[in-house]
Description:
By secondary structure, this protein is an all-alpha fold. It is built from 4 helices and no strands. It has helices at 2-30, 32-51, 55-81, 86-117. Helix 1 (2-30) packs across helix 3, helix 2 packs antiparallel against helix 3 (55-81) and helix 2 (32-51) runs parallel beside helix 4 (86-117).
Amino acid sequence: MKRLGLLGWLIALLFAWFAAFVVTGMMLDEGPGWALGWLAAVWGVFLLAESLRWVPLRDLAWAASVGWGFGLIRWLDPLIDGSAGAWRWLLMAADLLCLAVCVLVGPALLSGLARRLRPPEPPPLPVEKPAAYPRQWGPKDEA
């Protein structure tokens, strides 16, 4: 049963990635401003989920951020195919930089920001300490 839950979660992450990938492609066809607005929405959900400690939503938003990065790479591919020389290598480096920002840097910065904005956790409730030496039963207790 646990494997089915893990498989279902992986399918959900893959679906979030794919949906963000497709939506990013559609947004980039409309204009870069739409795509940046989509990225702001994805990262806004990530920031909200991280600040409220909703781990599943945070993971889905991270997968959507990765999908956004791959969607941008797909949009830049025709530029790479039509270029030659140093310009081609520069565009491929921009692809890798975009992917690194969407996968690692952006979520890490947003996570740090959410931790700073998050209210402090309340102190733990006091717990009674157990006795150092438990009382032993003796002949006086049997009467």
